[in-house]
User: What shape does this take?
Amino acid sequence: MSAKTSNVSFRIDTDIKNQADSLFAQLGLNMTTAFNIFLRQAIREGSLPFAVTINTPNVAAASLEADRLLAAERSRLTGVRGYSVDEFHNNMHHAIQKGAASHG
Assistant: This one.
């Protein structure tokens, strides 16, 4: 016996639909399957399966934060102090300035 299904209809920007169709095809899915996955995950979690915020960090800020968290975790696990990219950049900047000042 097959499960009962319902049709759902909604409007979406054509470009967004085409981009989603392309992405889902690359994943071996169609729009219906992708939406079913989304709905099942939302039901399982009891919320949207992703954070919805008005404060979306840009890629650079998110990358720096991820690097900072990774360095902290690596330090915690190994006992060796690590440096984030931002800390490394600042240290290098100060070292270059100090070297230029001592040679100038």
Observations:
- Residues 59-78 form the longest helix (20 residues).
